[in-house]
Design a protein that fits this description.
Chain lengths: 186, 186
């Protein structure tokens, strides 16, 4: 059952959640990162009802996160693979896994660990970083400014936020940097 | 309406999603990072029905992600603030925002930009990093190994995954597992 769509909310997080916000959806993406490709593999690993799995896989294909290819001449054997857009979800999956390991692990500890393939060492905790100095940033070191798609309402809200932050002793940068509008697109 | 709980799935991602996997939940956390504290502020900014907001706030308090304090003597004015556990969700929020900016932004572009407070420059794209060299890791550079909470089923599954990855030319790091002792060619 689909809930009201968040896609028309003018916020990248809401729009991202609209595509990937269903629990099963992110767990399917997790399995795809772990090498799952076939319907039956996803079904067995997730213990998910076939009709739900079918729906979610279709939605991931429609959303451009998975691509499906026939792997037999008859076209009956299908493989679901991550697209570039899907692979770009890696930081989301890693961030969720690390938070879960730290704050929601089962009593015995995390069942799996993410390690650097070359060394076998656990990967570093994901953290926001300065694009200028490459140094880790705490949440309070990160601010929000209007982007190219900001509506008048967004700008009004950001002004209110700026006033509130200044009152709390966390001044925003005086003016957004000239190229701030290029944003996080790599 | 709560769906079946994922908390008993032995996976940190599933358990994290069980706590924060509702769309509204993460949007509430996003607003908390932006300085929202009062019920009415969340309500106005998210356009969320009061009964849904009330449910979600309670769940976030129960889950230890928000803490609620009375800000007036009568106890009627309540402030919801992020706990340390809640603040640790920052990488999840940033990862979602960056993916959304890149892949799910509205036609006019992202409405807000995450910038480094000190410089006003956009923050760097979040990426997994080596704890050894601090260098960025691609998804293929990250592997999974059994953690302290791994069940027999988890270990069996990781063995199967290891065999599959070796067949694909992506050897896992040497690990104390019977089948990992055969030559790891790189």
């Amino acid at each position: 059952m689909r809930r009201t769509s968040f896609a028309d909310m003018n916020c990248s997080i809401a729009r991202a959640l609209d595509l990937i916000g269903e629990w099963w959806t992110l767990l399917i993406v997790r399995e795809a990162f772990l090498g799952c490709q076939r319907f039956g593999e996803f079904e067995a690993r997730l213990g998910i009802a076939p009709n739900v799995l079918s729906q979610r896989l279709s939605r991931l294909v429609e959303g451009g996160i998975l691509q499906v290819t026939a792997t037999s001449q008859s076209g009956k054997a299908l493989a679901y693979r991550l697209t570039d857009k899907g692979r770009d979800l890696h930081p989301v999956i890693v961030a969720l896994a690390q938070w879960g390991d730290r704050h929601a692990a089962a009593p015995g500890g995390p069942p799996i660990q993410l390690v650097e393939r070359a060394t076998g060492m656990p990967i570093a905790p994901l953290t926001a970083r300065s694009a200028v100095t490459d140094q880790p940033l705490r949440p309070r070191d990160v601010a929000v400014v209007a982007g190219p798609g900001a509506s008048d309402a967004d700008r009004a809200r950001l002004s209110a936020l700026r006033a509130q932050e200044q009152a709390q002793g966390r001044p925003m940068p005086a003016e957004p940097a000239p190229d701030a509008c290029q944003g996080n697109r790599r």
